[in-house]
Every structure is written in C-alpha cells, then in structure tokens.
Amino acid sequence: xxxxxxxxxxxxxxxxxxxxxxxxxxxxxxxxxxxxxxxxxxxxxxxxxxxxxxxxxxxxxxxxxxxxxxxxxxxxxxxxxxxxxxxxxxxxxxxxxxxxxxxxxxxxxxxxxxxxxxxxxxxxxxxxxxxxxxxxxxxxxxxxxxxxxxxxxxxxxxxxxxxxxxxxxxxxxxxxxxxxxxxxxxxxxxxxxxxxxxxxxxxxxxxxxxxxxxxxxxxxxxxxxxxxxxxxxxxxxxxxxxxxxxxxxxxxxxxxxxxxxxxxxxxxxxxxxxxxxxxxxxxxxxxxxxxxxxxxxxxxxxxxxxxxxxxxxxxxxxxxxxxxxxxxxxxxxxxxxxxxxxxxxxxxxxxxxxxxxxxxxxxxxxxxxxxxxxxxxxxxxxxxxxxxxxxxxxxxxxxxxxxxxxxxxxxxxxxxxxxxxxxxxxxxxxxxxxxxxxxxxxxxxxxxxxxxxxxxxxxxxxxxxxxxxxxxxxxxxxxxxxxxxxxxxxxxxxxxxxxxxxxxxxxxxxxxxxxxxxxxxxxxxxxxxxxxxxxxxxxxxxxxxxxxxxxxxxxxxxxxxxxxxxxxxxxxxxxxxxxxxxxxxxxxxxxxxxxxxxxxxxxxxxxxxxxxxxxxxxxxxxxxxxxxxxxxxxxxxxxxxxxxxxxxxxxxxxxxxxxxxxxxxxxxxxxxxxxxxxxxxxxxxxxxxxxxxxxxxxxxxxxxxxxxxxxxxxxxxxxxxxxxxxxxxxxxxxxxxxxxxxxxxxxxxxxxxxxxxxxxxxxxxxxxxxxxxxxxxxxxxxxxxxxxxxxxxxxxxxxxxxxxxxxxxxxxxxxxxxxxxxxxxxxxxxxxxxxxxxxxxxxxxxxxxxxxxxxxxxxxxxxxxxxxxxxxxxxxxxxxxxxxxxxxxxxxxxxxxxxxxxxxxxxxxxxxxxxxxxxxxxxxxxxxxxxxxxxxxxxxxxxxxxxxxxxxxxxxxxxxxxxxxxxxxxxxxxxxxxxxxxxxxxxxxxxxxxxxxxxxxxxxxxxxxxxxxxxxxxxxxxxxxxxxxxxxxxxxxxxxxxxxxxxxxxxxxxxxxxxxxxxxxxxxxxxxxxxxxxxxxxxxxxxxxxxxxxxxxxxxxxxxxxxxxxxxxxxxxxxxxxxxxxxxxxxxxxxxxxxxxxxxxxxxxxxxxxxxxxxxxxxxxxxxxxxxxxxxxxxxxxxxxxxxxxxxxxxxxxxxxxxxxxxxxxxxxxxxxxxxxxxxxxxxxxxxxxxxxxxxxxxxxxxxxxxxxxxxxxxxxxxxxxxxxxxxxxxxxxxxxxxxxxxxxxxxxxxxxxxxxxxxxxxxxxxxxxxxxxxxxxxxxxxxxxxxxxxxxxxxxxxxxxxxxxxxxxxxxxxxxxxxxxxxxxxxxxxxxxxxxxxxxxxxxxxxxxxxxxxxxxxxxxxxxxxxxxxxxxxxxxxxxxxxxxxxxxxxxxxxxxxxxxxxxxxxxxxxxxxxxxxxxxxxxxxxxxxxxxxxxxxxxxxxxxxxxxxxx
Length: 1497
Prior knowledge:
Helix content is 75%, strand content 0%.
C-alpha cells in the first residue's frame, strides 16, 4: 500500500536511532520498496534511502539475517533508479561503515562487485573503502582480507581505482600466494562474468604473480589455471583470459614458457573446435595468448618455440589436430618469424607455408584472417619477394576462374602484403586502378566479386591508413551495390563494412559528406546506394560510430518515406540495422518501436507518446550505447519541440535519465547542440511541472557530463535569470540554475554565492535582477537538501532584507524562498532559523516584520508536525516535546509583536498567536517571568523598533492586568534603572513611559516617591538617549499627576547648576535640562527664567549661564518664544560676557551664540536692538567687545538674510571697527566687518555706501564737521581695514549710477587719505585699475573730478607702487586736460605735476603739452595745457634738454608775450616760460632769453 508506506517513512526519525521493535517493522517495508524500485516509486524510494542511511549512521540494530538483504536491495535500486544513485551510494556507505559486523557480511558486500554494471562496481569499491572506518574492522573483529581480492580488482578498474589503492594501502592488504590462488579460484568458479570483469580478474592475477616474482608460485598458478580450463564449463573463457595475461607478463624461465606454449598447441586450441560464437571467441583469446607469449618471450626463446611447432607438426597429434590447432601453427609461425631474423634457415619456409594455407580451398575464413594478421612482418623482411607476392595475390584475386575461398584468401593476403610493404604500395603498383578495371568486366561476376573482396581486404589490414582511398572507392561501391549478381552485391556490402569498421574520425567526416549529398540526389539509384553504404557504417568503431550516427539517423529519416520503394525499404533496413547493433538489452527490445516512432511519429503523435512511455517505464540495468542514442535523441528532440506539456515533460525526463545511463560522456556529445537548446526552451515553459522536469534534466547533465560540454549553460541561465521578458523565464532559469549548482558541488556554490547574494541585495539593481537571484533560493535549498545547511543563516538574512523592497514581485519571490527554507530546515535547524526571525519581527521595516511573523508561524507549524503534535488546537506552551527555551522565546516574541503599530503586522501576529495559544491568561501567567526578561532585553536593544514594540507591550500588559503586574514591574524597572548598562536604562525609561500612559493616577501616586529620585538620576544620565527617554517620562508624569513632577525635577537640576562642585558633570545637567525644555517648554521655561535671569548674591556659575541657553532648544515652530524672551536673557548674558572672569565670559558668549542661532528672520530687529546697545556704550569697552563678539558670531554662523539689518548694523559696528580706542574692541569690530562683507554679496552691500561713508566721515571730521587730514583711522592702518571696505566702494564705482560712482570715488579717496602708506600699499593696484577704467567713460564732470582727486591721493600716498600705471595715468590726465569741466582740467594739471616726480621719461610729455599750448584751437584747453606744463616743469626732477627748451620757448613766447592772448592765458603761459628760464636753461641762455624776449616785452 503505497500511501501507507509513504506515511510510515515520513514519520521515521532522521535524528535519533529507532528502537529495535519499531525498526523491525519499518525495515521490511524499506527493503520491499527498494527491491521493487521503479520510476513511479522514485519519491518513496528516495525517502526510504534517506531513512535507511540516517538510521544506519545513528547505530540502529539490524537483524543479522537482514544484512545481506540490505545490500542486495541497494544493488537493485542502484540500477533501477539512476536519478537516486547518489542517495543509494550514501546508504551503501553507511551500511558498510555501520552494518558490516562479520567477515561473511564483508564477503557478501564484496561479491556485489561482480555485477554486470560498472556503476555497481564503483559503488561497491566506495563502500569497501568506507570499511576502513568500520568499528568492527578497527577492533579486529572483522578481517578485511575478505575484501582484498575485490579491492585488487577495483585498483585496476576505471571506477574507483585510486580509492581502491588507498584502501589496500591503509588496511595493509598486500600480495601473497593466497591472493593469487583466490583470484584464480574466482575466475574458475564464477560463471556469467562480463568481459570487463573477466579482464580485471585476468590482469589482477597476472599482476599478483608478477609482483611475487616466484617461479614456483607461477608454476602452481599455471597448473591450476590449466587444470581448471580442462574442467570446462562457462568459466573457461575467463580462465583463458587469465592465461593470456599470465603469458604476457608472469612467466619466468624457459620451462614455464615451453609448458605454456605446449599447452596452447597440443591441448588448449584443440578444445576450441566449432563454429559457435563462444568457440570462436575462446579460440581468439587463446591465439591472442600465444601471440602475447611470443611477443614477450619470442626474442629469448625463438628457436625453442619454433622447435615446439615443428615437433607438433611432425607428431601424430599434429596430423590429427583440428582446425584451431592448425590455425595456431600458422599464426604462431608468423609471430615467431620476426624473432628468428631474416637469415634464419627456417624463415624462407614460413611464408610459402602461410600462403599455401591461406589459399587452400579448405581453409575457413577465420583461418585466413588469422594468417593475414601475421603476414606483414614477413613481408617487411623480404620486400622483393613481397612485391612479387603482391602481384601474384592480386592476379589470383581478380582471375576469372579462381575458387571463391582462394579468391578471398588472395584478397585478404593482398591487404596484408600492402601493409608489409607500406601504404605507398597502393599507388606504386596501381592497385586501385587494377581493381577498378577488373570491376569493369561485365562478363565475369567472379572478377567483379574479386574486386570487391580486394576492397575488403585492404582496409581490414591497413586500417586507418586506407582512409585516403575510401572516398575514391565509394563510386565503385555504389555501382557494386546495384550489381545484378547477388554474390557481387554481398561482396560489396562486406567491403563497405570493412571500410567503415576501420575508418578514423577524420575519415568518417570525409565519407559522410558525399553520402549525405548522395541521399539528396534526385536519382534514386544514387540515393539507394548512399543509404546502403550508410547502413554499413554501423560497422564503424564505437568512437567513430558515435560521431557519425547523429548525422546518419536524421538523414535516413528524411528518406524513410521516399517515393521509390527500394529507397524506402533500404532506409528502413538501415535503421533496423542500427537498432540491431544496440548493446543495451532494454533498448534493443523496443528498438522497432523507436524506429517506428522516428519514421511515423511526426505524423501520429500517439506513436511518439507510447514510445516515450515505454522508455520511462523501462528499468535500465545496462548502459546506453551510441546506436541507442542515435535513435532516442532525435525522438526526444521532437518531444521537446511539441506543444503538449506532457510530451515536453517526458522528453526532459528522458534526457536526464539518458545521461545517467551512458558509459562515456563523449557518446552523447554530438547530441548536446540539438538537445540543450530545446531543453532551454522547455526550462522557460509556462507549465511549472515542465520547468521542474527540465531543471532536473539540466542538473543531471551538469553532474554527469564534463563542464566543457555545456559551456554556455550557466552563462545562459544567469542571463535568463535577469530576463525582463517574464517572471516565468526567471523562475525557470532559477530552478535550472539551482539544480546545476547543486550538481557542481559545494565548492562552486562557495565561489558563486557571494556574487549571487550581492546581486540579490543590491538596491541599485533592477527588479528583474533582484527577483531572479532571489528566486534561486526558492529551489536551491530543496535541490541541495542537507548540503545547504552552511548557507541557511546568510541566505535567510538576505531574504528577510528583501522584504523591504519597493517592488511587490521581489518581495513575493523572497518570501517564497524564505518559506522554502523554513519548511526545509524548520524542524532540523530550529535554533539557526529562530534567531534571524526574532530579529526580523522587530525590524524597522514593517514588511520585514510581517514576513518574519508569518515565517515564525510556519516554523512553529513545522516543529509541531515534526513531533507529531496536532496543529489545529495546539497549546504551544504545554508541548513538552519541544525545549522550553524555544517555546518561551517564540511565544514571548509573538506576544510582544502583538503590540506592533502596523495593523498588518499586528493582525498577522494575532493569527499566529491564536493558532498556538488557546488560553492566553494561563499562557501569560507561565510566560510572565520570561516575558519580562525579554521585554527588558527588548527595551534595552539598540533596535529602535524593538524598543517601541516592547514599550507598547508593557503598556498593553499594564492596561490589561493593571494591579497584578505593577508590583512586579516597578521593582524590576527601578532596579534596572540604576544598572550600568545604558541600553537597559534607556529601555526602562521607554517602558516607564508606556506604563505611565497606561496606568491610573492612583497607582502612580503610590510609586511616585520612589520614581522621582530615579528619574532625576536618569535625566542626568551620561547617555543622551537615556536622558531623552527620561524627559519623556517626566512629561508623561506631568500630564498624569500635574506640575509637581516637572517642578521637582527641574528645580533640582537648576539647584545643582548653582553648585560649583557640579562643574565636572555640568554638561549632563544642562543636557537633561534641555531635554526637559524640548519636551514641555511651557512648563519648564517659566521655572528656568525665574531662576536664572536674576543674578544670585554669590554671582552666576558657568552652569547657570549656560542654562539660560536652554531657551534655544524650543521645538521647531516655537522660535517666537525665543524672540519674546531675548530682552530677558541677552542683557544678563552680555553683562556676564563683559565681566573679568574668563570662564564666565566664554560661557556667556557661547550661550548668547546658541540663542542667536535660534533667531529667525522675524526676530532680527529685536536681536540687533539688544546688541547695538552694547556697541554704543562709550564708557564700557568690555561691553563693546562683547557686543562686537556677538555681532561676529551672528554674521559668521547665520543663514538668514541680513541685508535688512545692515542699516542698523553698519553704523553700530564701523566706529568700533575703525576707531575704537580699545584694541580688543577694534580687532573684534574689524573681524565683524569682514564677516558682514563675506556674508553679503557686493551687489547687496553697494546700496549702503552712504552709511559706510557717513560712518567714516564722522570719524575723520573735527567738531565743526570739517575733515581733518591728519587723522589716521586705526582700523584701517592696523587691521587691514581696507580689505572689507574697498570692495563696497568698488562695486558702486563700477556698476552704480553717476551719483553712486561719485560717492564711491570720494569714499575711496577718504579711505586712502586716512590710511598709512604701509597699510595702503597692498591695495594700491586693486584700487587704481578700476579708477582708470572708469575715468575714460562719459560721465559728468563731478564724477571725473572725484576720481581724479582720488587718483591724486593715490599718487601722493602710493608712490613707487604706482609705477606700472604711470603711462596709463599720463595718457588719462592729458585727455582730462581737454575735458569740458574746468575743475577736471585743473585737477588733471595738478596731478600731472605729481606724476612727473615718479616718471623716468618726461620729455615726450613736455613736448606734447608744448605742442598743444601752441596749436590747440580751444583757448580753455590751451589754458589747461599751459597750467599743466607749468606743473610739470615745476615738479620734474631734472632739467629739460636744450632742444626741448628751445621748443618750449618757441611755443610759449607767443602765448605769454604776444598781444593776441587774453590775460589768463598769458599768465598761464608765462609761468612755464619763466620756469624754463629759471629752472631749466643754463645761466647764459637764461640771460640771453631775458634780454631777447622779456626785456623788449
């Protein structure tokens, strides 16, 4: 009863050994299930294997009479269910390690090695290797020698050779005579052994004898083998193989060699007479044994062995010998010939004897074949004779009247002769040409038959060397296939088979191409011939057959329904022939159905479906070979292409099963490019069941095929995993990739998992990428099973974190994966899963909390099911089967989360609680101690969500249970509030807040006297979060019981601030006060102002001063409260900031700064009203310093728009910054001005030039309002005062109106005039450049005059600094001499006089001025030029040259002494003329000029 068995197995424990009585009932069910194993029972068998493995590993007691049955059933399921081989092998290993307790049981396990399938052999070797760890072997109870012989066989087998050798070495199982005899006995006693096992036995026997190197033992072994050989029976062939291996390497000395050779000639070959396949195979093995003996010992004993042959032939035994013995004589003579040497007297006799026997009409084909094999060495020894023989044999093979047997012998001998001569003999002697000509003989069928026989003999002897000639021989074969004579046809088929059997891989490719083209030919005869040759390709070697069948079978399928009946029949026969060479008995039995499905299934789907069902219903014991694959794979490919989901599923299932059954992965390699693309399409099929089957198939491919055969599978899966097309594709890729990763092993997963998790948790990735990578974990845990255990914690953390994603599909996929993890590992790894889930239920994101609660509910359900506890009405707290710690942890977490603020989480938690708790009050009563511990821990957590939920839970408990829990809660809270753990103290405060909010006023009053002192200490805790939480408690107490709570705490804190000894911890008190202020400003502020704004008799303490700044922590929108109380707090702060105590001053400045930082735009004028008062205090420099510092702080830190207060601020701060008599005030003021300028843009400052200039004028003017040129402003001179001020004027100068430009120019001039030269020097260049640029523009004369005035001041004070500007200034001044405004002309003339003091080249200027005086048409300009010329000549450092003097006299004389000019012009011209005469001309010239010019006038 399958359902009953499944229920029993599901309930079987995997964690503890079952008692003997229950296991005695379960074991028969397991064994029967395994014995009847088949694909429909695969799931149940997998569970049975797991239960058996775990129980054996746990030490369950198995009755002795059942031990052998256990191993038998395991060997059955190993073959019947390829998909479960890993599980079966695991169970077998467990049985070997824990179940084998006697030597007989070990021998029984070893016997399983002799199964037909190599998979079983590999599994047995692995199990025997596990015996090393068997306790009975380790303590000596079981002698491992019972497994020695089989382990020696395993050491020579491809399956587990290395493991077998390691086991032999570790167990100390060496070689001795007993082992050799045991191996011989095995060969002689075990009938029905496969060829592979027979060869292993033979090799192991020979290896043991060779290792012993004991002639006596070798003789004994030889006698034993011969004796057993003559006993007959089915073991004779195995013994013959042993003799072959022993002859090849384990005979020592002439005696043993002769004895062995005599046995072959006189006895061994004599028993092989007959034509049955068994007799022929035995004869071939004995002949191979003789050849091996000759190869090994022929060189040493050639004469002795030749004598034995002659003696045998001359004796009566030779005369009476049968066919096999005579064949042996011929073969052995040929083998000995190469060891006798070409000069040996007997060598010339050998070849004629062989040829005579070869061409004898009584020789059989097998005798001829054996002779041909030994002929090539003889031909090599005498090539001249060989060439003659070649022509003779070719002529006899192609002669019209030759006997058929002799014709065949000649044709076969032709191939051997060519091999002896070399492949070049084919072309050298024109062999193919002669064969072709012979076939052209239309009259003699025998000649044509001989030609075909030659084409058979050549490839049989030459092998792959004949490949280059096969393609050229194909047309001849195609003709012969259609020959009217049946004997010729038969010979052509034999030739074709011979050629195909010897083709190499490249040769197959060369042949296939023309044949494939021939099949497509329109001529039916060409098509027919190509099909018939393709049919003969079934004779290819296995490797070449595997390479050609993938092309041959589809090609045959294309012509199976050809219009011509003969072509159709030939194609069918070809496919039948392929089916006939299938070696797998299971597939051979259904080969006709496979062929029918290939030929008709495309038209009739039911035929394909029936064959697929047959394949799936077959229990395979043998491997699938290349011919099997050639029929199955096209059928599977077609199934995968079908629309039907059932067909796709079956096709994918067969792909997975095929890979398990192939012997060599290379057999299926040609079909991989055909199957994998279809399997990929199936993997992304819309039907989940189809996708699952395809995923399993990919996993099997990855596990049993080399990775280089599937190079693009994993990249394609990773690419599809992120597909944007559909969730179906991503899901299929995830399922397939999980199976592939599982197949590749944990090392590959270890390499890839970090990248997978990185992509899964990458917030920047697209939703498709995240969903795809998360989807892997829906399938990977199931695919890997217990192997996934190391990754559970890391993966679950990523899955829970993904619940916070914004995309629903990503969250859903992650949740499905988490559910799979919980289901897979919930019962076995509860503690591992419980910790992240408990953290998750308190996560900050409600989605993570919701998912964690649901998963915890699923975890509880898994636990209940695992312990067989009904889930419908479970009372989790009473389930004693579960550890109490688990129960209390889960229930406590669930109860706490019931208080979650999110309704979805709250509702989900309530559902889980109701499902596992039937009586909440009783459960809470039992849970309360653990719950309180958990609550305190949660309240003390750094996880804020956990704190909040726990606090709400406290409130819920208090509101529901009230007086019942308060007596228990309050002592716990009070105790923990004084603990050293800050998190605990914070948690207690949070809990107290909820408790206060939930309880009654009466209960609070009961505990108030204990609560207030504790809260006082908490409010000054050294951790801010504790202080913040404590202030919340005070606020709630205030609400609950009134003002008393706040007054008690605040007045206590203020009182502590007045104490000098609290200075060390003053910050804690202040922070506590701030917390109180922020939580309940209306209650705390009046107390603080009333206490701190009035100076105590013994003066302020720093703590009190800083306490005033707590007004600054008013909650966001209440900043108007700060404005309202500025007049209360700033005066005392400014007063203290002006005292002598430095500590108090710093505290006052800091506190005032904090308050100012809280002022917003609306309070600026109130603030500056308080600050400017301090700046204008003419009698108290300290107050001015304090005010300036507060100004500086404000402008440095504020982000407000300060332009509106500049009319107030600038007049107040500039006097202090520029001319305060106190140095500290002066420096602070200047820093403040710098802060203002940095804070404001130049465009914003420019409108306040008038305020700035007024402030400056007020400082440089005397009582009468006149500017005193001797006043130097200290701020400008000592503290780089020009730095903040000149940019203001410069902005106005460059971009202002005409009035603004004039004002800016005058202001700059005033700054220059009242700054020392040293202080002015860094700014000369910065100021001069803009002035020069502006003066050249068209502005009113007042603007230009102001600029020229300022430039004049710069010339006077700048001195040499202005030298780079002298050419520009000179040009500018000369232009100004022609300005319409007289004042500008006058100032330009004066400035030129100053400029020449600095100029090195003055004569060009003098010449220019002189020319203008003489020639300019405008009298006013001439007047200005003359005045300027006078200034220049008066100030120029050196006298002008005589030439210049003459020019000046010439230009000035008419203007100064002529009668045409008016008086002013004459006076203006007379001044420079006088200066020429007085300062520049030499004395004689001066006298001369006076006499000539002046006196006459």
